[in-house]
Every structure is written in structure tokens, then in C-alpha cells.
Amino acid sequence: MTTVEENSGPVTDPTSDYNIFDAEFVRDPYPTMSEIRESKCPIAHTDRWGGSWFPTRYDDVVAIAQEHEIFTSRSITVTASPLRQAEGPYAGIAAPPITSDPPDHHWHRRLILPVFAPQSVAKYEQGTRDLCNRLIDGFIDKGEADAGTDYAQQIPVRVISAMLGVRDDMADEFVSWVRGVLEVGLTDPIVRLENRNKIINFFREELADRKKNPRENDLITDLLNSGDKYPVSDQYVLGVCNLMLIAGIDTTWSAIGSSLWHLAQHPEHRKQLRDNPDLWPTAVEELLRAYSPVTMARLVDRDIEFQGCPMKAGDRILMAFPAANRDPRQFENPDEVILDRQHNRHVAFGSGIHRCAGSNLARLELRVALQVWLERIPEYSLVDPAAVTWAGGQVHGPRVCRVRF
Amino acid sequence: MRVRVDEDSCQGQQMCSIAAPEVFGSDELGHATVLIAGDIPEHLHAKTRRAQANCPEDAIIIED
């Protein structure tokens, strides 16, 4: 069962038949997550889209994330990989280190972690601030803008392009390729494969260029040259480039968009942030908790009973980080945004060995994007709340979000 | 109060340095380091406990 028609019928009981691509769930997944979490069956199951499990309680999600040998990351989407993906340029290229297992995982991750350490990503702050200001210059005189397409969507793709040392004018194409993989592509394997191939073909040329013309302070050049420490292949470097695009664009864009959507409706939170800039660190974590954009998946390695659920080798598990982050067992008043929340052990970036490697960059982008927006546009509101459109499935955030100021 | 980071558990979430930037920093890989050698001053105890509570990996060990 992989076609949209076969999988899109009405949902009667979300604990046994949830559909993460259902229009209402895409728009507002939290009531359904809460219904499952508080039911007798907090790890739901569905036969839709090839079948998956859906743990919604914080402790269960974290326990699964920690057991990386049983619940592997060899496949990280809810739908099966495109058929015959080994043909063509995508052959053998994954998204390391997410898709790597130990022991390769260790050095796959070690090679890229230094790039994303807090002290390393700090050098992108000024460039991100300038970028945000330029974007706002483009629409501030109009009194109205799309906080999604004119702003949130434009930021991460350019930050990632700068990190990868690729042309800035690729932004629209990158966005379209990533949406082709992560949004449309989740339910349409052909679109997914086409867009994966576009990404890989693009970076194949970038790699060829760096081999001919090595650059100073360049991530791709540095990765290609790390072979003295680790056996780095072109496949690995291509995989990392693929991952940075896939993991670094839709996700942060969604977090920025959701936060702007939230702040548009909460003048008291805008005022709190204006009056007390010291709140930013906890505010960013709280917005990440309340509007966690990412739901990863895991692949079950061997038959196992987990919390009474008979999981079979090859089953998929949706890591509902957004549901875990609103579990009342872990968070007081979980559906409320409390910008100075002190106890906030959220897992928006996952947990365990596969936690998001780019988290410090994502935090920086989210903070700077919101700071610059509120500096320039302190007062604003949604033009029409009902007209906001959302992406959902495994990455949740607004896409069209018109605001007036 | 003394504090240390269990290196096997730490995944570099950095929640500790957000909760208590005076106490926790980052190494080259972005994993947590303790910035204060010896006893943690009393005025930082609450923050240090918050950092411990916020670590999703349970990697912070406090010895009173």
C-alpha cells in the first residue's frame, strides 16, 4: 500500500489507524498525539503507508532512541525507500552519520561534529543576521509579507549553502529538491527518487570541482582531505552533503515559521522578549519543545516486544518527538508556551547517538531569525489564520503564513 | 558540590551550557566540558541542578 488513494481514507481510531498525512493531522497534530498518548495504547500502530508504530510518551520515545542497535536508523522515513533506488546516481549513497551504524557511525560523526560545535557555528551569526535584515528590507515597506515563503523558507537554505561553499543562487532549487524528498516525496516514491538524484548529481559536480580546485576553509575540501585520519570515500562526502541539505533546510525553516506563527498570535510573548533579552536562550528551547518540527523514523532490527507491542524485524517506528515534548508526565502545562520554562528536557533534536548533529546551528538560526524579525517588526499579526498552510508528515511547520504589520 | 560529565553518555546536546553557561562549555566536538575545577560556587548550585535535570542523556553527575 503505497499510493495516496489507498492510504487516505478517514481515520476512525488513531490508536490503530493513524495517518500522519491526514490533512487535519498535518495542520494540527497535537490533539491526535495527545489522544493517543492518553489512551490505553500510547504506542499506536497503523497499517497505512506500509505500516508503522507511533510511540507518543516521552519515556518510550527516549528509550527507543537510546536502543540504537535494536531500533536502527538505516531507514529514517516512514515510507519505504524508492524501489530500485540502487540504480542511477543514488547507488550506495546514504545520509551519514544518521544512517550509519557503529562502528562507522563513530568516525562518520566525529568528522562533522567539529563543524557544528557551538564555537564553530558562532561564525555564521553575523552573516545570518545580515541575511535576515536583507530579507526584511525586501518587504518591510509593503506592510504585509509571507513569514513563511518570504522569510523562514529563505534563511536555512542560504546558511547551509554558505557552509557548503556552493552558489547562493541555488536556493530555490535546493528548496524544491528538499521538498521533493521530504514533503511530496514521502508519499510519492518517484518524485522522491528524482529529487534525490538531483541532489546527488549536483554534489558530484561540486566534489569534482573541489578535487581540481581545492579551497581554503571549505567543508567539502576538508572532508575530501580527511582521509589521513579515516577512510573517507566520495560516497561518504556525497552522503554528508546530501544530509546537510535534507536535514538542514526543511527542519529549521519549519521551526522559524512555527515560532513566527506563534508570536504573531501572542503579543504578550513578543513584549516579554523585547523587554527581557536575557530570555532568548530559554525561549528558543521552549519554542523548539512546543513546535518540534521533526519526526524521525527507526527500523526494527529483530523481533522484540516493547511495552507490550509485538514489533517485528523490518517494522518502522515513528519517533514522535513532537508528542514526547508535550507529554504531561515530563512537562508541566505542556501545551502552553512558557518562554522562561526552566525545566525543559526536550528532545526536539532527538536523543542518543543519532541526535541531530546540526542542533547548535539550528538554534543559532532560529534565535537570530526571531531577534531580527522582532527588532524590525515588533508588532504584527496573521492576515487570516485559516489561510495558513502547513507541511506535515515527518517535518511539521507552516509554509504559507501571511502577516500584516 | 562537584560536577562531572559522563563522556560515554554525553551526545553534545548542549542543554547544560544553555541552563548553566558559567559551569558547562563545549569541547571541539561540541560535547560538554566542565569549566569549573573543584567546588561549584554556591550561587551556581541551582543552575547546575537545572542543567543536570535538562540533560536528555542523563550525562551529568553531581557529587555533593
CATH fold-type name of chain B: Alpha-Beta Plaits
Percentage of residues in DSSP E strands of chain A: 5-15%
The largest sheet of chain A, given as strand count, sense and whether it forms a barrel, is: 3 strands, antiparallel
CATH architecture of chain B: 2-Layer Sandwich
Shape of chain A: globular
Q: Report the total helices of chain B.
A: 2
As a percent range, the share of strand residues of chain B is 15-25%
The CATH topology of chain A = Cytochrome p450
Task: Tell me the helix content of chain B.
Answer: 10-25%
- What is the assigned CATH homologous superfamily of chain A? Cytochrome P450
Short overview:
Chain A is mainly alpha-helical.
Structural account:
The complex is a heterodimer of chains A (405) and B (64). Chain A has 405 residues and is mainly alpha-helical. Chain A has helices spanning 4-7, 14-17, 23-27, 30-37, 58-66, 104-116, 118-121, 125-137, 147-152, 154-164, 171-182, 184-187, 189-212, 219-224, 234-248, 250-264, 267-275, 280-290, 321-324, 359-376; strands at 43-46, 52-55, 71-72, 144-146, 296-300, 304-306, 309-311, 316-319, 381-382, 389-391, 397-400, 402-404. The model of chain A is unreliable at 82-91 (pLDDT under 50). With 64 residues, chain B is of the alpha+beta class. Helix content of chain B is 23%, strand content 22%. The longest helix of chain B has 10 residues, at 45-54. The mean pLDDT of chain B is 96. The A-B interface holds A 62, 110, 113-114, 116-120, 281-282, 285, 342-347, 349, 351-353, 355, 359-360 and B 11-15, 17-19, 26-30, 50, 53-57.
